[in-house]
């Protein structure tokens, strides 16, 4: 999922590691609508502020896809949560997109938007903003139509399993690219678990493929309705080291400091990171 924000998603089913099992249990209280309100409605959802967190994230993604280097047939969004904004720039570059989340409530929220059903979150402000910064003359309706057409499936995922999508997944594997926003740090009880989760999702990516990773900096908790969820605090250095250990070349790493006006009491996030990393090809 995504927020300004960690995300509720990717998840972890109970297994031999009590840490991920405890996190999985805590996420059963996760409320998608509260999460969306906290992070994608004003003030954090105010895209008219050039220095806002929303425009910063959308700009990072749009600029990276505009290079033309991150493209191919298939893309998997790891731990989508109840959000789709992270794919608005991606959908022009991939024909087959897979959304994933650990929680059924989040997968249902995604389906509501994909089917344009009543009660779906309105992402049109985000779609308009992406069209504006991309500058291609595309309407927001065309943007959303293209994304809906290219999302082929919504699947369960557990990033704490060696096969995150399970055996026999219908997703085309290995994928040409992965996107993940506010997922790994939000569902990992410690740095070692964060590293293992990154290793696990990396198995879904082809050598030479690209990972675009957005996450929270130095955050320890966030609210999603009645749920107060723990986050493993990570800094820029930890993110870089984890990517290198998982076999990536870090192509770009940017950080954003959360301004006081956007520290609204729904979390203790200090900032956001954006990483573009490319999986190394074994020699």
UniProtKB/TrEMBL annotation:
Keyword vocabulary terms for this entry: Acetylation, Catecholamine biosynthesis, Methyltransferase, S-adenosyl-L-methionine, Transferase
Single GO MF annotation: phenylethanolamine N-methyltransferase activity
Sequence positions that bind S-adenosyl-L-methionine: 35, 40, 79-80, 85, 101, 106, 158-159
Broad class of enzyme this protein falls into: transferase
UniProt-listed Enzyme Commission number(s): 2.1.1.28
Domain of life of the native organism: Eukaryota
Reactions catalysed, as given in the entry: (R)-noradrenaline + S-adenosyl-L-methionine = (R)-adrenaline + S-adenosyl-L-homocysteine + H(+); (R)-octopamine + S-adenosyl-L-methionine = (R)-synephrine + S-adenosyl-L-homocysteine + H(+); phenylethanolamine + S-adenosyl-L-methionine = N-methylphenylethanolamine + S-adenosyl-L-homocysteine + H(+); (R)-normetanephrine + S-adenosyl-L-methionine = (R)-metanephrine + S-adenosyl-L-homocysteine + H(+)
Record-level GO cellular component terms: cytosol
Pathway(s): Catecholamine biosynthesis; (R)-adrenaline biosynthesis; (R)-adrenaline from (R)-noradrenaline: step 1/1
InterPro entries found in the cross-reference section: NNMT/PNMT/TEMT_CS, NNMT_TEMT_trans, SAM-dep_methyltransferase, SAM-dependent_MTases_sf
Region (Disordered): 1-23
GO BP: any one term: methylation
PROSITE patterns to which the protein is assigned, alphabetical: NNMT_PNMT_TEMT, SAM_MT_NNMT_PNMT_TEMT
Family according to the record: Belongs to the class I-like SAM-binding methyltransferase superfamily. NNMT/PNMT/TEMT family.
NCBIfam families linked to this entry: GntF_guanitoxin
This protein's name: Phenylethanolamine N-methyltransferase
Source species: Mustela putorius furo
Lineage per the UniProt record: Eukaryota, Metazoa, Chordata, Craniata, Vertebrata
């Amino acid at each position: 999922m995504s927020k300004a924000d960690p995300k509720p998603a990717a998840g972890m089913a109970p297994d031999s590691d009590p840490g991920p099992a405890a996190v999985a249990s805590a996420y059963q209280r996760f409320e998608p609508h509260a999460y969306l309100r906290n992070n994608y409605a004003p003030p954090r959802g105010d895209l008219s502020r050039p220095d806002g967190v929303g425009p910063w994230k959308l700009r990072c993604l749009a600029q990276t896809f505009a290079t033309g280097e991150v493209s191919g047939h298939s893309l998997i969004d790891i731990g989508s949560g109840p959000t789709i904004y992270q794919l608005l720039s991606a959908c022009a570059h991939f024909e087959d997109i897979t959304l994933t989340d650990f929680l059924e409530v989040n997968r249902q929220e995604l389906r509501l938007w994909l089917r344009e059903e009543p009660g779906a979150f309105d992402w049109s402000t985000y779609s308009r903003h992406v069209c504006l910064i991309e500058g291609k003359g595309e309407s927001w309706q065309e943007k959303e139509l293209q994304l809906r057409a290219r999302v082929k499936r919504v699947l369960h995922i557990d990033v704490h399993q060696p096969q995150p999508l399970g055996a026999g997944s219908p997703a085309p594997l290995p994928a040409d690219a992965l996107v993940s926003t506010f997922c790994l740090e939000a569902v990992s009880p410690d740095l070692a678990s964060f590293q293992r989760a990154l290793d696990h999702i990396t198995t879904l990516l082809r050598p030479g493929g690209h990972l675009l990773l957005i996450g929270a900096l130095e955050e320890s908790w966030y609210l999603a309705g009645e749920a107060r969820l723990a986050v493993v605090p990570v800094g820029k250095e930890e993110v870089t080291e984890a990517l290198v250990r998982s076999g990536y070349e870090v192509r770009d790493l940017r950080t954003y400091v959360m301004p006081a006006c956007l520290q609204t009491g729904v979390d203790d996030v200090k900032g956001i990171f954006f990483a573009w990393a490319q999986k190394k090809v074994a020699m």
